[in-house]
Amino acid sequence: MPVIQYSQELVDLRQYESMPEEQRMEVFDGIAYNMASPSQLHQSILTELLVSLRNYIRKNNGGCSVFPAPFDVKLNDSPLTIVQPDLMIVCDRDKLDGKRCNGAPDFIIEIVSPGNPSDDYIRKLYYYKNYGVREYWIVDPQRKTVTVNYFENDLLNVPYTFDSVIKVNIYKDLYIDFSEIVKTLYI
Fold first, then answer.
1. Burial class of residue 116, CB neighbours in 10 A (0-12, 13-18, 19+)
2. Strands across the sheet containing 4-5
3. Are 46 and 87 in contact (CB under 8 A)?
4. For 64-119, what is each residue's pLDDT tens digit?
5. Using CA atoms, how far apart are residues 73 and 51, in angstroms rounded to an integer?
6. What is residue 132's three-state secondary structure?
7. Residue 108 and residue 181: Cα distance in Å, rounded?
């Protein structure tokens, strides 16, 4: 299902915060876009990745926090840009205010929706790179690929398949074995 533009008028933070909580949306340069509900496959992949990341951080007594969607990330105030990444790691706790992350998370994973792949591959890639996200993964269940973008070292669009073991570059010793994740999925 494609993402539908919510309004032609520019939205500010006050207007965004007054919208119904059950209405999932993102705002890019002041323009609000409705978000479709995620599929079962999307949520299964998200859960497996969340558990892997959370377990690693706990085991290593890390100072970072992992958050699944829906959790707002305000990248810019004017024009307003707020996204809800599928999964993120935030290491600077000063960015968290109880409502959202204010500024770029360190690590983001987006799981591609079949009706709107350009949102993750083009639009979000642009925003995440330009607003300071350190690492961005695009997990594509249709193609059974993971595209890694590690902006700090200019590693862009590095492709992997779902049978790969992939290094999380913001950590020195964290690897995600997608073949293990796939075993738990109905694909």
1. middle
2. 4-5, 31-34, 25-28, 81-83, 72-76, 100-102
3. yes
4. 999 999 999 999 999 999 999 999 999 999 999 999 999 999 999 999 988 889 99
5. 21
6. coil
7. 18
Classify 118 as helix, strand or coil: helix
| Tens digits of residue pLDDT in 32-42 | 999 988 999 99
Do residues 78 and 13 touch, judged by C-beta distance below 8 A?
A: no
Domain ranges of the chain: 38-71+83-183
Q: What is the largest CA-CA distance in the chain?
A: 47
Residue with tokens 């999925």: 185
Q: What is the DSSP string of 40-59?
A: HHHHHHHHHHHHHHHHHHHH
Judge whether 151 and 137 are in contact, CB under 8 Å: no
For 115-122, the CB contacts below 8 A with 24+ separation are 115/1, 115/2, 115/3, 115/36, 116/1, 116/2, 116/3, 116/36, 117/142, 119/3, 121/147
CATH number of 38-71+83-183: 3.90.1570.10
The values of phi and psi at residue 107, to 5°, are: -140, 135
Q: Give kind and range of the element (H or E) at residue 25.
A: strand 25-28
- Spatial neighbors of 46 by CB under 8 A, at least 6 apart, are 38, 68, 69, 86, 87, 111
Q: Whole-prediction pTM value?
A: 0.93
